[in-house]
Each structure stands twice: as structure tokens, then as C-alpha cells.
Structures
1.
Amino acid sequence: MPKVTFVQPDGVETVLDLPAGSTVMRGAVAAGVRGVVAECGGNLMCATCHVYTVDGAGDVFAAMTDDEDELLDCTAAPRRDTSRLSCQLGLTEGMDELVVHVPGAQT
Ligand code: FES
């Protein structure tokens, strides 16, 4: 079962064991992780599920689609090279430990 660590801007960490088949966003929302808003419920319409992955983590998750790339230009916090929308970060059985950083603002 993938273990995902959410790191807040103040350094506080939340570690969750999340089931394969879910997404980083769904796990965060279900657990009440601060800073993952997900207004559109994962329909790729809000960009309020923005997270920063750790360098190289892009290889673990499915490649970014053009739609995600476009929506990432609308995030409240600055976009970085490691920015992803957590609703698009699907969790699979082969994943082990993952870390994402939560931005300081989502709306
Ligand atoms: S939850 Fe709205 S884009 Fe991810």
C-alpha cells in the first residue's frame, strides 16, 4: 500500500497509507489534510489540489496530460517544475513511499 507524506509549508507532516486505485488528492481530502482543497472533486477544473512533488517523482506517476499542464497555469501558488495536480496522481500497487509538498495557497 503506497505511503504518502504531505509536507505543509510550516514543515508539519502528515503520513497516510493510501490504497492503490485512489489518488493523492482523494487520500488527502478523506484524511482532512490541510491545504488540499479539491473544489472540483477531481474533474480537472479547479487547480485547488495543486502539490509540489519531489524531483524525480514525475517518473513514478503517470505523465502529465495537456489538460493538466494547462490548468497548472491557473494555480494560486507559483507553479514550479515539480508542480502537479494531486487528483491526477494515481496510486498503484507498486508504489512505496511518496512525498508531496502542499503549497501555501490554493485559492
Ligand atoms: S481536484 Fe480540481 S483539478 Fe484536481
2.
Amino acid sequence: MSLSPVQLVVIGAGPGGYAAAFKAADLGLSVALVDKEANPGGVCLYRGCIPSKTYLHAAKVISEARHAADFGIAYGAPKIDINKLRDWKKSVVAKLTGGLGALTKQRKIRYIQGEAVFVNSSALKIKKSDGIVEDLSFEKAILATGSRPSAMPNLPKSRHIWDSTSALDMDAVPGRLLVVGGGYIGMELGTVYHELGAKISVVEMMPGLLPGADRDLADVLYKRVKGLFARIMLETKVVKMEENKDGITVTFADKDGKEFKEDYDQVLVSVGRKPNSEGLGLENTKVKVNARGFVEVNDQRRTNDPNIYAIGDVAGDPMLAHKATHEGLVAAEAIAGHKVAFEPRAIPAVVFTDPEIAWCGLTETDAQKTGQEIRVVKFPWGASGRALTLGRQDGLTKILVDPKTERVLGIGIVGVGAGEMIAEGVVAVEMGSVVKDLKLSIHPHPTLSETIMEAAESFFGSSTHIYRPKK
Ligand SMILES: Cc1cc2nc3c(=O)[nH]c(=O)nc-3n(C[C@H](O)[C@H](O)[C@H](O)COP(=O)(O)OP(=O)(O)OC[C@H]3O[C@@H](n4cnc5c(N)ncnc54)[C@H](O)[C@@H]3O)c2cc1C
């Protein structure tokens, strides 16, 4: 059977795919959107950003209630109804994905629940959720099939081993939880389970948590979680996992190769994500896939096949929802004939731990790697009135400046609410602001955003709340 042809088909309805489909329909194209789920949402809404942030909000409430004792308000130990918490997460996801389903209908996009495979550069075979297989021919396609958790080799099949998806299903809080991988997903979910009462251990083979983030930012988080988590093992590898009577026995090797064993009730493996570029029939098209499995694209997100575009996680790093959405908009506009390109100067990254870490534009780590000359100005939150009112002086704001042009090249923030604050940095970097723009823009008082203004002031020798003696 064949479905009637469309101008554009989008495969995968995550934040990249549905944004692309919506934009293309708004621009007047006839659009079909294919996904395995009943409504759009993708990993981000069903198994990623939204469920994890729903739980992180609950974790924050628990943590703040505990810290309220420091200023004289004590609530006692929280009573956690895990089923209610999970149902609340489910209701948030259902509301958002249902809303996207309604928006799809309003835009007259043909939504097909099923799995698509390319037959050639202008036709798909779609195995629909009702089991019927249909052909769909198209003028252009956007591949937005996203990514999945990377597995570790030789793991036993066990209900005591989670990936990020099963950890978010949440049916119980384990006693001892080992998080394998100190990246953002492991640290966020570790934070959630810590606040719910699990004893968290983290193992990371690199010398620090959050490889990729600047060390001075990651160190603030490290100091805090070191005091909260049971154990953080750096430069340590997992050698083997074996199921035992009621959990998992894990064999580790430290940096000298010395092996040791520990028992855990549950293990969360969060060692990265892999693009979904296999099993799609790409061999029947001209699409090229690189050695890491990412689809190769140009600055309009067009693949090597003139009819096929690719966006989001399947099209390369950084694997972030907002990057996927932006690429989706560019691809849809390019297909509609607009002169556009994907060329951001600043894709923000946010780690929603406690404290949060956020950065955009150039990082100090990258500048060191390339030898790019920069000046870094910092404002420690110990000098922020707002941070003091929150009882959270464990923060730092820094600005990376081009010493010659005084342009703002990047901003990094660690501290509560850093994820909201970084948007100012994105605007500064994208707009090519000079550091004086940040210094001269009046920031509201008392806010944490003032730390950006004061870091900018210190570029010129002094800032109001930090005394620096003259040399
Ligand atoms: C636990 C977790 C937390 C995260 N938190 C954040 C965060 O806070 N902020 C952030 O920016 N990012 C976060 N991410 C990453 C974010 O989820 C991804 O970057 C984003 O979802 C990528 O969007 P996408 O559109 O490329 O594809 P995805 O969201 O991966 O969606 C792809 C869709 O394609 C469908 N699909 C695949 N193959 C086919 C096929 N053959 N036919 C039909 N449909 C198909 C899939 O079922 C899926 O629905 C998180 C991820 C995880 C796992």
C-alpha cells in the first residue's frame, strides 16, 4: 500500500524533528512526521530532559527543605511516595507530548506512528504501529532519529543494571547505587537518587567529573558532591559486573591497575550516547555516515544526498535538545528555499546538578587546547549578596575575553540557577558584545546575574564588591 506523497517527511519526532516539521508546515509545505511513539516528543520529552528535570525539581525541594534548618526552619525527614512522584513525572510528560500532538494536528501535519526505512532517495517504507507496512514517497526528507544510551560490553542481563531510560522509570529507590560515568546524565540522576535517599558511588575513568567542562567550574560541583555522595572514584575503570543474590558485584581497576570489588544494590550505566543511524536503509541513499556513526551534514544540515537532511543527535555533537531544535528550523527553512545556515557562536550547555554548571561559547579548556589568547575574569559568589541570602556561596562566574578586541568569547557559571543565567552569556557572545557592554548594562539587585556584571567590571581593574589592592 502507498500513502499519498508529501513534499517533506521528517523521520523522528524529537525536539529536532517536530520543530522542523512545524516550521516546514508553517512555511506552506505538505509535511509528514514519522515516529514510533503515539505523540511527538522524542527522547527529550519521554526519556530525557523533561523527566530528569521533573525529578531534579523534586530533589531540589528536598535539598532546600533540609538546608532550611540552617536558618531556623526544620521540616524533618521527607516522606517519599515513589509511585506518586513517578505519576507526577508521567503527567508532565503526557501533558507536553499531548500538547505537541494537538499542535501537529492544528498544523495539518500527517503524523504516522511507525518505523521508517529508506527504500531510496525519494521513498520510505513505514512499518506502522498497527503492523501495516506502507510506502511513502517524498521530495525531501529530514532524518531526526536521535540517539540511544551506549551499552558497556559484556554486561550481564540484570534488573539491577539500569541505563538512563530505566533509571527514569523509577519504581524503587535502591540502597546503594553505583553510577558508572561522571558525565552530565550520571551526575544529574545521581543527584536525584541521592536526594531520594540512595547512597551514591560514582566511578569515572577520567581524572575529573564532567569531562569537557572547565575544571574550575566542575571542581565546585565536585567539592559539594564529595561531601554528599558515599564515594567518588576517579581514574578508575569498571572491569566486570556480576549479578549476585540481591544485586551486582562490580570489579574495578584503579589507575595503577590494582583491582578491587564492591557490592551494590543497583548500577546505573551512563557512559555516553550513540547516534541512531543504523537500520534506516541509509545504504539505499547517498547519505554518508562517519566513523562514530554520525550522519555528515553541511551548514544547512544537508547530507551527501541532495534530497536528505539530518539534524539533532544523529547529526553530531553536542547532543542537546536546543541544538537539535535550532538545526531543525534551519533545515526546514533551507528546504523552503530560504538563505539560511547553522552557524551559532554559542550553544549553551547546562548540567542541572546542584549546583548547576553552565557555559557557552569558548571554554578555557578549548582555548588551552588551541593556544588561543584569552583573558579570564572571575567573580566568586562569596562576594554576592544574593548568593548569601540563598545560603549558597558555592558559585563562580567567569568571562573569557579576547584581550585585543575586548569581545566576550565565552561565559562559564557554576552555582544555583546557572542554567537560567547562561542565556545572558549566549546573547552576549552571539551579538559580539564587548566586555564593557556587560559592565555598563545595569543588572537588577539583588540577583545572581549581577555576578556577570561584576566579573565584567573586574576586567577593567576593579569591581564594587571585590577589593583588589593596587600593585
Ligand atoms: C536522561 C537524559 C537527560 C537529558 N537532558 C537534557 C537536557 O537537560 N537538555 C538538553 O538539551 N538535552 C538533554 N538530553 C539530550 C536530549 O534528550 C537530546 O539531545 C535530544 O532529545 C535530541 O533530539 P533529537 O530531535 O535529535 O532526537 P530524539 O529526541 O532522540 O528523538 C528521536 C526520535 O526518533 C524516533 N526514531 C528513531 N528511529 C526511527 C525510525 N526509524 N522511524 C521513526 N522514528 C524513529 C525515536 O523513537 C525518537 O522518538 C538528555 C538526554 C537524556 C537521555
3.
Amino acid sequence: MKIKAAEAIVKCFEIENTDVIFGYPGGAVLPLYEALRNSNIKHVLVRQEQSAAHMASGYGRALNKTGVCIATSGPGATNLITGIATAYMDSIPLVVITGQVSSNSIGRDMFQEADIIGATESFTKNSYLVKDANELPRVIKEAFYIASTGRKGPVLIDIPRDVQEKTIDFIYPQEINIRGYKPTFIGNPRQVKRAADMINKSHKPVICIGGGVRSGNAMEELELFVEKCKIPVVCSLMGIDSFDNDSPYFAGLIGSHGYPFANKMINESDLLIVIGARFADRTTFMMEKSNHRQNIIHIDIDPAEIGKNFETRIPVVGDAKETLNSLLEYSYKLDTADWLKDVQTRRKNYLKKLFAKKASLNPKLLINKISSFMENGSIWVADVGVNQIWAAHSFIAGKNKKFLTSGGLGTMGYSLPSSIGAKLAAPRKKVVASMGDGGFQMLMSDLATAKEYSAGVKFIIFNNKKLGMVRELQKNAYNENSFFGIDLGFNPNFMKLADAYGIKGMKIADDSEADHAIQEIFKDNEPFILECIVDPDIPSVPHMGGENYE
Ligand SMILES: Cc1ncc(C[n+]2csc(CCOP(=O)(O)OP(=O)(O)O)c2C)c(N)n1
């Protein structure tokens, strides 16, 4: 079948089950937009290209599939960069399409020319500059495959405008054969056996999970494994929603901003079983490198991550689901009853303290209350700042609520657009996005997208009139007289802003108003802005300062 290359691109998306594309047009993608106009794929017009990448990320994460975004050449492409890097750091599968100047003009500093492949090389999983239109079907099939297999991530395809206009004979390849790309799915049986033996010899083991468990669809296998071995579970920021938070085996978040007791637990343990986590600095921050009692088994799909930060006794390269299935074939006889009881007592005591009345409005109590109103399959999207840590500590993911955030890159502004993407993916589920007044203002122009597409996200702005997290860092690194560049000296009136966007809003400043606010925000399925006035001294975690709040 002979068709225009731009139409072929759209056909490839249809075959890959892409139903929504987030984008922003321009001259270099005109042929592609003309083909999209004639297709059944929904195009969501964002208000800034960075949002297109974040929305595709939220959409994909909500459905556990690959998100797709498009931008034009030059400034359109460069505006995508932060979104691409954010997805890369958190192993989120994206296919990113950028328009490029005509192929015979590349390298001549043409109008709106940017070397987007070069600019994103270190944070894309793969990228293609397509100069031969006949290559497009193969390239697009490969891009979806690479983005969504092994350690997932963004793949960029840069397509010159003249290439989009060519006519090609359209055949979608049946098979994939990429030289040098063969992810290992099944853990080496000998390593798995060694791991099972080590588990059986341990007295105080802990399982540490990351985002790889959810993205690898291994939650059920993890639950079976935990119940079989009777081992408590801690998690990284990306792993919060990978395990039932109400389970008696669940302890909580570890790391620089983790639950203090959970950090203590990993230092007391004699074995750490790390599953689907990079085990990077933010997660291992409180670990004693000199803990010679401790063995580490590290299971990850990406061999480059194993042993990167901590010496690993037993590396197992493999997919979380397959490897857990292999581990489940062994029998386990561990006596962890006292260890588990201890963990549960500590968790109960910590949460009690966390939600106690300490300020006019305790953001952690509010987040926890809202999360208890959210059903299975609902989604919380946390931004970056002290507000991220409040959400990470207080949102109880239960068995199947999702918690999305920018864990690796820590990108302020992520939550507003990615929550819109998530809501468009799950229109009947509750989607809540929490953020600081700084993060909100980074990409607030996409409130228009929420309104236009009736994406009923409940936006919660924690207004402390400061860049709270940096303020906390300055205080801890120097002293209280060292605050600099962190006052948001002027904020718009957020309620008037909500009104300008045709979005309902409400402002609260005390815990006593929380129940009424929750009733109001969930009254309908429309977007809502809840502004919460909070004290700037409320710390991220108690030991980070804010003596009145310990
Ligand atoms: C795009 C981006 N720029 C800068 C930072 C550094 N940074 C981390 S947290 C933070 C302050 C966030 O302030 P706000 O959004 O008001 O949230 P709060 O910490 O007050 O909850 C800053 C500037 C970042 N993470 N991302």
C-alpha cells in the first residue's frame, strides 16, 4: 500500500494502540498534524511542550503503557528536554516525536534547527534521525519495543519535514531484531538458588522495592513472595505504590527523606533483598556503608545498576516478575515473628506522630485524609519540594492506588501536567495532584488544558510563600539567617486564577476545614483547586528541623 510517510507514522501509532498523543504543532510537523487530523487518535494540545512529555508520562503510567508526545523542531524540541530527562531517570516508557528541518538542510543553522538528538543523547534510551522515509515503520516499531522492554525509558525519533512528505510502500514489520539489544528477563538459576539459600540463613531480612516492581507488573508475585518468606518491606520513592501499604509486612519509605524507623530497620537487618530499584543515593542515604553484617541481594533488569552504590553479594539480572517466580519455587523457613511485630509497632507509632495536630493546618493529615477517600485504582501525583515528602509519607497507597512523582530528576512542575495525562487515561478514577506554590507556577498554564479537556484533577497547592525545600536545605547547611532567593515575594491570587480558568476553587488554613474541603473537591468530576495555607517551618521530615513540629 503506497501512502504518505506522515500517514504511515500515524498508522504505526494505531497499530501500537496509541489512542492519545500530547503535542504542540509547528512548521516542521505540519505533514504529521495533517495526517493526525484524518485519524482517530486524539490529540491533546498542551500549553508548553514540557507539559506534553509529562502528560504522556502520566498517561502512560496510569495505564502501564508507552506514552507518546510530539513537538516541532527547534524551540518545540528543546522545550521537551526536561520532560524527557524526567522520564529517563524514572524509567518511564515514552516515544517522543520531533520535527526537524529538511534533511538536506540539517547542519546549516536553518530557522528553528536544533540538534535534539545530540542534546538528549545522555538521557534517551535510544534515538533516531530518520532520513529515509522507508525506514519509518521499522524505526517506530523498534522505538515502542525499546521504550517498553528491559529497563524502560524514552526513545526519540527526529523526522525531517521533507521525510514526512515522501510516499512509501507501507508494511509494518512483524518481527523485531535489534542487534545488541537483548534484555535479560530470566534471572540466572544459579544466582537465584544462591539468593534463596542466603534468604533461608537470614534472621532479620528486609525487602527493598522500587518502581521496577509495578512497571514490571510483578506486584502479585511480590505479595506471594513476601507472604511465603514473611519478610518486611521497605521502599524507595518510586516504589511506594508497588506493594500494599496496609499489609502487616509493609514498613515504609527509606532514604534521605524516609521514615526514620524504616532507615533504622535497614541498618539493623542482616540481609537486604533489593527488587526493581536502582538503589541510588537518595534511597541509600541513611545506610551505613560499614555494615559488615549485612548481605545484599540485588535483583534488577538493568545490570548497570547492580552494585553501583553498594557492594552486592548476589547480583541477579532479570525482570522482577520472572525472578520472583523463580524465587517462589524454593521453600523458606524463616523465624521473623518478633522482627515483624517490632516493625509494625514502630510504623504505628510513627504514623500516629505524623498525623497529630501541630500546626493550624497539618498538610500530612490532610493528604492522609484525602487518600482515605480515594478508591482502588485512583492516582496521587506528587510534585517536588517539602510537599513531595509530605505526600510520600502520608499518602497510603493501599493495595492498588497509584503514586506518581518525579523521583530521579526531582522535576518541579511535574505533577500538574502529568496528573492531567493520568486523568485522561483514567477519567472515572479520582486523580489528585499535590504541589507547592513554586512548582504550581512552573507549568500552571496547563490549567487551560485541564479545563479544555475536562480533566477533573483535584489540584492541591500547599502555599507557604516559599521554595520550602531549598529554604530547609539552606537552614540545615548554614543557619536560619542564611535564607536567600527562596521567598516567593509575589504570588498571584490563586483563587482568582482558578476563576480565570473557569475552575472551582477553595482556600483553607486550618485542619478543622479539611472535611468540608474534601466534600467539595469530590462533589463532581471537574477540575478543582484547593489552596492550603501552610506554615513555612513545617519540615519535610521531623529530623530535618522545625523543632515545633517534631
Ligand atoms: C525544575 C526545578 N528547579 C529547581 C529545583 C530545585 N528545588 C527543589 S525543591 C525546590 C522548592 C520547591 O518549592 P515549592 O514548589 O514551593 O514547594 P515546597 O518545597 O515549598 O513544598 C526547588 C527550587 C527543582 N527540583 N526543579
4.
Amino acid sequence: MTQKLIVIGAGMATGRMLETLVEQHADFDITLFNAEPRGNYNRIMLSPVLSGEKTYAEIVTHDDDWYTASGITCRFGERIAGINTAAKTVTAENGDVLEYDKLVFGTGSNPFMIPLPGHDLEGVIAYRDLEDTQRMMDLGEGNKVVVIGGGLLGLEAAAGMAARGVDVTVVHIMDHLMERQLDEAAGYLLRRALVDKGITVKCAANSKEILGEKGKVRALLLDDGTELPCDLLVMAVGIRPNIKLATEAGLAVGKGIHVDDQMVTSDADILAVGECVEHQGAIFGLVAPLYDQAKVAAQTLMGQEAAFVQKELSTKLKVTGCDLFSAGDFAEGETREDIVFRDPARGVYKRLVLENNVVVGAVFYGDTTDSNWFFGLIRDKTDISDMRETLIFGPNMQGGEVDPLQAVAALPADAEICGCNGICKGQIVEAIEGGATTLADIKAGTKASGSCGTCTGLVEQVLAVTLGDDFVVPAAASVCGCTELTHEDVRRLIKSQGLKSQDAVWQQLAWSTPNGCHVCRPAINYYLIADWPLEYQDDPQSRFVNERNHANIQKDGTYSVVPRMWGGITTPDELRAIADAADKYNVPTVKVTGGQRIDLLGVRKEDLPAMWYDLNKAGMVSGHAYSKGLRTVKTCVGTDHCRFGTQDSTGLGIKLEKLLWGSWTPHKVKLGVSGCPRNCAEATCKDVGIICVDSGYEVSVAGAAGMDVRETELLAKVPTEEEAIAVTTAYIQIYRENAKYLDRGYKWVAKVGLDWVKEQVVDDLENRAALVARFELSQSIYRNDPWAEHAAKADAYQPLADLTLEAAE
Ligand SMILES: Cc1cc2nc3c(=O)[nH]c(=O)nc-3n(C[C@H](O)[C@H](O)[C@H](O)COP(=O)(O)OP(=O)(O)OC[C@H]3O[C@@H](n4cnc5c(N)ncnc54)[C@H](O)[C@@H]3O)c2cc1C
Ligand code: SF4
């Protein structure tokens, strides 16, 4: 018969337990209570949310659809207030009494608040959940924050807020940061890296009192009399298992709720998992053991045999630019020896602690590439006598080989790859043999790399080793060889860390080359232009050949020149100027392009500036005809001449072109405006296509007619020309602000979803106006004619790269 299972707490541990139950079709009628007003999310990713590297939506592990499909009754925002173990009932906060056959505790921890005078003032918070994170995110630039606690959580909070421009001071009672995980030398390097991020660090500092004003925090007073003013005070000094409810229910508790190897408490029908648990005298604060407990609890509930075994743990700090790994025990001792490697110039420090030829502890700062291999040595208690001399240089130096994949190939099947989820190499290889070929497949099939993500590189190496040539670097690969960050990461970090120059990007995002390369520089140049139009100075050296030359290079080395004809309209004077230029510079071919412009083909490079000068004099601008920017707006003749036209499509096309020209975009942008659904301007295969209809304007987006042929999709139907222009402008701007460099509009829309674009551009009028305003701000700088600017300069046309030759049109 179906049993009633009540779960208290939708945390990381119970989330994993529920998944196992659902996957194995366990016969339970499940009700899930959570004090937080939401379901399971990846709590460890709150730090990337705080720093702006991820959004909350991206860290949700189980959404409403999953609970519905799994038949779980959710009572979020509801706390369990009491348990009657004799009657086997729980009482919810609102007084509802529910019966259970089995009950699982997953109540996690409470952050410890030092009972300093003033700890209950408004503005004194912990760092535990989304509400705390939101409080920190709500602080504006220039606000002051004090973080008490220089451990993992405190430092992630500090770095996250500093990335948002908040003035942060970390107060730590010990002599160096993260003293439980790091030795002094690594602690020093970490401190220096944080100071470089603008964070003030005070070690050996004792907090005395929290000072307030009108009930709100004002400053932290240290016992040496120093006052540190603050608008918010974050206490991150440790956690205590949340055992109140269990104690009141009469369960056996110590520091946490006592459980046996099967995760059963002192009551045979009640189990407990996660940070609220005490197992063999130990309590837990990292997810790896909690996930093991969760699996064991699920198996116990299903009547299967399983036992929880405690394993060695490791720590990584999730602060961009602070590569830090620590595992095992590195306290000093008579039988212990150290191997230390320092490279001060690179800020690299590695220390191994050995005891009886076994590695018992490891601390790495600055280069953590081989940390998993060392962690395996610690966990497996491997005898390292034979490799002692080269041990510190990592797996690549063992056996004289320097192939980075060799170390991964040599790992045994039971070597742990993903610490959070306890996934070993063998499970990943099994998934690959079962058909997985991408990181996403591995994540979905095994959960490896699905939590804190620090093992992603290693999982990819296992893929590469197992699949050989069949392994294709995933689409979300890094920008280029100069960084491990993806385009999306870089875009987010440029915004969240306020990086406003190329140097700031190379430095802050730890580029491995001094000035980037021909792949990343155009992208970074574009991102900086798009995000900081007023502050950033465009770098012509970081542009592709067509943009640098303001003309398109052709197969014989000559160039094509395409003067702008707004909306495809021209005049006899313009035609004369074009004809004169064609004569004067011996242009061999004059061609009408598909975008309704006249293309002068076969121009010699040395003639370009003079020719631009002549065309400029005749009032013609261009220079963007082959740019990653607005190309042309194709129009039909519309109401002026056509019997069918419903609106002035030519006029609208001209307005749009005059508005949008000059803006830089992730890739080229083409528009079309047709005066009626007969669509003579072929608007439905453009990046933005507008069809005029009796009732107004249909604005559709994400079309293409190149290597991929796509019909546009309807974004909005609007009654007025003003709205059609506003929707178009807002769409271009949201594409400019979000897309990966060199992603065409249709590719970007496929990634983010048209519904999201509609929400931002069509439904949210305030956001639409803000996007238009930001576009106009950018255009105040960039709506200029590069021909005019460069017409006088005959030199400096060396391309950075000619990788992106555009097809001649
Ligand atoms: C900012 C941050 C960063 C972290 N980074 C890392 C990291 O990098 N690596 C790592 O391994 N670990 C990290 N951790 C620790 C990790 O998140 C925890 O170990 C893990 O979330 C604990 O899981 P849990 O299921 O035991 O409890 P939780 O995830 O805390 O879930 C407990 C849930 O129970 C609910 N609850 C409590 N009482 C009741 C009640 N009476 N009724 C109903 N619901 C109740 C709570 O509201 C809560 O939602 C981090 C933690 C934080 C806060
Ligand atoms: S699209 Fe309609 S209005 Fe425009 S030219 Fe063709 S038939 Fe005429």
C-alpha cells in the first residue's frame, strides 16, 4: 500500500533524496514542507548569484513542473511547528495536522549569530538563503558593508558585494583568512587577491559591539576602539545544525540529530539527512557527504540495503580570480613533512603535507589544475615514495609524460571526479558508453559538474579521453585559448565588475595572454562598446578587416564600396556622385545589391580614402556596409506609389535606417519593411521585418536568408509607427546587450526564447523605454560616419585578422 511520506525542508539534501525516490518510482505519497517560500535550489550557487555571474532562475534545481510531474504535494513557505511521534503526525504552522508513515528531517542549519550587543539591529544579517542574498544585492554602489568572518562564506559574500561596487570590509578574528583550510602563506596570497579586488581585510580583529541609530545598524566597533561604519553587517561565522524541532519531538540529539548508517534517527520511522544530522560524532557543512546521505536515506525508505560512510572532504573557494583548493589535514606534527612550491611572480603556492609517504593534506593557491589528482592521493592513501621527487609538479610529470590528458586516462575507474555529487570516473565512462557525448549529457545522466561546477574541466577531459576524436568541444566553450570563461561569463562579469577597458578585462578576468588574441579582442571590444558607450574608447585595432577598412575585401584583394541610400531611396545627385566616383577611380563593376544599394566593386585599397572623400562631399555616408552593425533597411514603395500599400513603408524604412545606423551589434543586422502582406521587401527573412497592415504594423524578428534560411517570428503587432520604431529599437538594444559576439539574431533568440524577448520588449513597457533610452545614449557616441573620420588618413589599414570575410552581396 502507498505510504505517506512527509519531508521537512526542501534543501539540497532532501532534493537529492526526492530525486532518487522519483527516479526509482518509489511508492510514496509525498508532501514536502519548506520554511522558505520556494522549492529546491542550489544553495551553493548563491555566491555566483550575488556576484552577478548567475541569476536565481539558473540555480533552481527542481521547478514547479518537476514537482507536478513527480506527484509531490508542495507546501512552500510553511514551517512544521511540531511532531507527535506516538500518533505519527506533524502539525504545520497553520494548525493542519497530517499523518505520516515515514518522516524525513532535512532542516539544515541555522547561521550562528555572535550575541554581540546590537546583533538584533535592523541591517544585521546572515548569509544563508535567497533573502539574505537579495539584501546584499539590493545595496547600491558606494554603500558600506562589514562582513564578520573570513571563512569560505564570508569571503564569497565580500567578493560578491565588492563586484557590485559596494565598499566591503572583512573582519576576521584569526591572524589569517580561512585558517581552518589554509596555511599562513596561502592565507596571505588570498588576502592580497581580495585587497586587489578593493576589499579591506582586517585580521586579528575582535568585534566588540554593533552600533546602531534609530534601530538600524550604523557601525561595527572593534575592541581596539576602531569604528567601521556600515549600512549592512553580514555575520558569516559558522552554522549550527537546526535541531529544535527534533529535540522537541523527543528524538536523540547531540550537536545534530543522531542517525545511524542508514540515516534513521532514534525513531525507526523518522530519518534525517543533511546539515541537521550528527553521524558518528561528526556534523556536516559541505554538500558532498549530504548527497551520499540523501541516496542512502532514499534506499532505506525503499527497503534497500545501504550505508553512509564518511569520506575525506575538500574545499574550493568560488571567487572569480582566486583559485584556491584545500583538502585533508595540514597541521604540523613531528612525523610530518612538507613539500612547498612557490612562484611569486605568478602568485602560485602549493603545499603538500606528507606522513609516512602518504599525502595527508594539500593546499593550492593560484593553480588548482591538478587538485583532483592530489585529492585522490589523499583519499586513497596512495604510497608516493616512487614519485616523491616530482610529486609537487602533478600527474603530468609522473612517468616523464607531459600529456595533460594522460593523467586523466591513468585515473582508475573509482577516482572521484565530481566531489559535490560523489561521481567517479567509472560512472562518467559508463554514461559515455551509454551514448553521452557532451557535458550536458553527462550532467543530465550522472549529475557530475552539476553543482559547484569546479570539476567541469575534468569531466570534459574524461569525455575527451573516452571519446577520442569524436569529442567536440561543447558550444559553451571558452571565448578562446586566452581564457576559460565563456562569452556569457565574460559579458556578465564585465557588467557586474564594472570593467571598462580591455586592460581591466585582461587583468581582472585573469586572461592568460597579455592583450588577448585575434579571436577574443573583437568580442571584448564589442562588449565594452555595448556596455559602456560613454566611458569606453573603441579600439580600431580590435576589429575585423571589413570594419577596419570600412569596405569589404574581395577575392582579388580589391574592395567594394557601398554608400548608404537611406531606405533604398536615392537622388539624381547621388547617382551622379556614384557615377563620377566609378569613373574617377576606374571601378570595373557597378552592381545593385540585394539590399537596394549600389555596390562599387573592384576599388583599389589606396583609392579608398579619396573615393570616400568624394562621396562624402556629395552627402553620402557609409562605412558600415559590411560591419557587425546595421547593414540596410530594404523597403517596398508603399503607399506613395503602390495600389496595395497600407502605410508609408518607404518612409518608415528611412526613419529606421537613420535611427539605427552606426550602432555596433553582435553580428550584422538587416531590416525590411513591406507596405502590405504581399511583402515585396522580403521582410520576413530579415533580422527585423515589418509588415504594414490595415490595423498597424507587424514587427517580426529572427529571420535569416544566408547559410541558414529562417522565417521571422512575430514579436508584436502594434497600431502606430512610433510603437513599431520603439519595439524595433528595444529589440536591437536587448540583442546588443545580451547576445554572444558573432551570434546572429536568430541564433540568440533560439537560445533565450522568443517568449523572454516578448516579456522584455513588448509586455514590459518600462523596460522597453529603458532599452530605447540606452540605445539612444549609445548612438549619441556611435552614430557617426567612419568614412568622414578616415577619409583623410591613407594609412593604417592593416587588418587584425581576415577570418570573417563577408560574402560579396
Ligand atoms: C552561500 C553559501 C555557499 C555555499 N557554498 C558551498 C560550496 O561551495 N560547497 C559546498 O559543498 N557547500 C557549500 N555551502 C553549504 C551547502 O549549501 C549546505 O551544506 C547545504 O545546502 C545543506 O543542505 P541541507 O539540505 O542540509 O540544508 P538546506 O539546503 O539549508 O535546506 C534546509 C531547508 O529546510 C528548511 N527548514 C528548516 N526548518 C524547517 C521547518 N521547521 N519546516 C519546514 N522547513 C524547514 C529551510 O528553510 C531550508 O530551506 C554553501 C552554503 C551557503 C549558504
Ligand atoms: S509590399 Fe504591398 S505595398 Fe509594398 S510594393 Fe508590394 S504590394 Fe505594394
